[in-house]
Design a protein that fits this description.
- The protein is mainly α.
- Among the domains are: 153-262, no CATH class; 280-554, no CATH class.
- Helices cover 65% and strands 2% of the residues.
- The protein contains 24 helices and 3 strands.
- It has helices spanning 25-35, 40-74, 76-81, 96-114, 123-146, 148-151, 154-169, 175-199, 205-229, 236-262, 275-286, 292-317, 323-331, 340-358, 411-419, 423-433, 438-445, 461-477, 485-510, 515-526, 530-542, 548-567, 573-582, 588-595, and strands at residues 370-373, 383-386, 399-402.
- It has a 3-stranded mixed sheet, with helices on one face.
- Helix 4 runs antiparallel to helix 5, helix 5 (123-146) packs antiparallel against helix 11 (275-286) and helix 12 (292-317) runs antiparallel to helix 19.
- The longest helix is centred in the first third of the chain and has 35 residues, at 40-74.
- The radius of gyration is 26 Å and the shape is globular.
């Protein structure tokens, strides 16, 4: 990847290494003799304490290595996202035996972890201890209580599509090697789908609907788009084998789609995971230990504030008209068809200049992401940032992909699509995805010392997405856009969407809100059309904690203000951002402790 180094901020956490310790009995005796005349028992106890500390310091890194190895071996697509390609030819195993073995393995790791006293570790390892401990609980919650693999057929589609997409997306190895990985995965698709049919038990109607749509998309991707990604491979034998495996995979998926279409949903089945599982999921996956009632009060308060700010900002543009009418005019100011990549590149260049001039965050040296059109096989995505995993051995470029209009669309379709990527919202997208959002976040990740806090498999979405969403507002606060109310309106439109997710996610899963009610809620409160509003409501059924965008953003905003009081005259925004990103993927409660060691403040209020 282009960026080679990140200027390191001062690190608060202790180094992981235990070198430099001097546990010898002679040194302990000298230390004690200089203070008092201890008894032999005291000296022996001191030696035992030091021995336990040394043992823990040695055992914990080994446990982390073993745990991550086991986790990645069971979830190859997650491993690939982190840049670990040892299992790229494998597809996840959801057989009953594999699920039972995974559950048993996690419990054994829990037993190993319990034998290590966290207070005997370095401060950095103490954070990793708690993060690993929570991840084990999160995985068991899914395997033993929520059991999406029994309720949601889409789980199996995502494993297939994500695994193949990553192989096609990144040149982490020569194309001849990657096509072999694709062939191997495709051959295992029939086995995966057999497990799916065995595991699934009375899925709710919405899960069947979304799974059928997803599998149809994956079938098209495998038949039409994946071959294009590997067209440059010249080896005729490999291409023939790939064609055969693709035919096998496509037949298996088509058969599974028919099976899903013939499956009658259980009218009593619900997509909701319930309050207990909802709160447990937030606690273990995100480190957010807050009752849903409190979260909902915060969500409704913040939604009302954002709506009022939206109205006031629209009035700055034209006080004689309704806010939504003003917003409609703003949406019509969009790039012309065929110019989205060019416009996004201009935005990236301007963002970099502004960040450096205002000293927002220390940017990585070297080239930024390649701004490019979305490949044909990924046109379902409007915009995306593809940052190579932190464990990649090769220097791979990041890609900021933008999807332009389809030439086959009607003029009306083109206009409606471009209106959704109007200039203010395209700016918010470039901030979120590139600078100083996910691209900058991803480059800092490569410099993190802790393997726990640089692994995507354990990354809390409330920090990953919270950071990117936070940067949208922060950049406006720092003067980006020179106070143009249209720019502010675009940022607020993005905030309203995420705030509606905050409310809807809780109500869908803990208060029996229906999909129709959630759709209306997005329309009325996020100022959205019915089609995108329904898509958001349906996403909430299988992504229950998609409130993480706003909760993460609010938690970072509060952390910033608390840290400002903590540092007093020594505070600078750039220093805050550098330190925050340098600590890696951690729940925000951990970021608070790393930045303010004695912190006991609330995550959000």
């Amino acid at each position: 990847m282009g960026p080679s180094r990140v200027k390191r901020a001062m690190r608060i956490v202790q180094p992981r290494s235990s070198r430099g310790r001097q546990p010898k009995l002679l040194i302990i005796i000298i230390l004690f003799a200089s203070l008092a005349s201890p008894s032999l028992n005291q000296l022996v106890m001191a030696q035992k304490t030091q021995d336990k500390s040394d043992l823990a310091a040695a055992d914990f890194p080994k446990l982390v290595t073993d745990y991550l190895l086991d986790l990645h071996s069971r979830h190859p697509s997650v491993a690939a996202a982190s840049g670990i390609h040892a299992w790229d030819g494998q597809l996840e195993d959801y057989s009953g035996a594999a699920l039972a073995a995974e559950t048993d393995a996690i419990k054994k790791f829990q037993n190993r972890l319990e034998k290590i006293q966290p207070l005997s570790l370095s401060s950095s390892d103490i954070f990793d201890y708690q993060i690993i401990q929570s991840n084990m609980s999160a995985r068991l919650l899914e395997l033993e209580q929520i059991k999406a693999f029994q309720r949601n057929p889409k789980v199996y589609n995502d494993v297939i599509s994500q695994g193949l997409l990553q192989i096609a997306m990144f040149d982490y190895a020569p194309a001849d090697s990657r096509i072999r990985h694709a062939i191997s995965k495709e051959k295992q698709i029939p086995r995966l789908l057999e497990s799916a049919r065995s595991n699934l038990n009375n899925p709710p109607a919405i899960f069947l609907k979304l799974a059928i749509e997803s599998f149809r998309g994956t079938l098209s991707f495998i038949q039409n788009d994946l071959p294009k990604a590997f067209a440059p491979v010249k080896d005729a034998k490999l291409q023939a084998e790939f064609k055969k495996s693709t035919k096998t995979a496509a037949a298996a998926i088509a058969k599974h789609i028919k099976h899903l279409e013939e499956t009658k949903p259980d009218p009593q089945a619900t997509f909701a995971i319930g309050k207990q599982s909802f709160e447990a999921k937030l606690k273990h996956e995100e480190g957010i230990n807050i009752p849903t009632e409190t979260l909902l009060r915060i969500a409704e308060r913040e939604l009302a504030k954002a709506q009022e700010e939206f109205r006031k900002t629209a009035a700055e543009i034209d006080s004689r008209r309704k806010a939504l009418d003003v917003w409609g005019d703003v949406q019509r100011d969009h790039p012309r068809a065929g110019a989205l990549v060019e416009e996004a590149q201009k935005q990236v260049d301007e963002l970099v200049k502004f960040i450096r001039e205002k000293e927002i965050v220390t940017l990585p040296e070297g080239p930024g992401p390649i701004v490019a059109p979305t490949p044909e096989f990924m046109r379902w995505s409007i915009a995306s940032m593809w940052t190579p995993g932190p464990f990649e051995n090769r220097m791979l470029p990041a890609r900021y992909l933008i999807t332009d209009v389809d030439p086959k669309w009607s003029e009306k379709q083109k206009s409606e699509y471009l209106s959704s990527i109007n200039y203010p919202q395209l700016w918010a997208t470039s901030i979120h995805e590139a600078y100083p959002g996910h691209f900058v976040q991803g480059v800092y990740l490569k410099q993190v010392a802790s393997n726990v806090r640089k692994t995507w498999a354990i990354a809390p979405a409330s920090f990953v997405e919270g950071w990117a969403h936070y940067t949208e507002q922060m950049m406006m606060e720092e003067g980006f856009g020179a106070g143009d109310p249209k720019m502010k309106l675009g940022q607020l439109a993005e905030a309203l969407l995420r705030l509606c997710r905050f409310v809807a996610g809780i109500r869908l899963h803990t208060e029996a809100m229906t999909i129709d009610q959630a759709t209306r809620f997005f329309m009325d409160n996020g100022y959205m059309g019915e089609t995108p509003a329904r898509m958001e409501a349906e996403r909430g059924t299988f992504d229950p904690i998609y409130l993480v965008y706003t909760v993460g953003k609010l938690a970072i905003l509060k952390l910033r203000e608390d840290y400002k009081r903590y540092r007093k005259d020594d505070f600078s925004l750039q220093d805050f951002h550098d330190r925050l990103l340098s600590n890696g993927f951690a729940p925000i409660w951990a970021h608070r402790r790393m930045l303010m060691p004695e912190d006991r403040g609330k995550l959000i209020e």
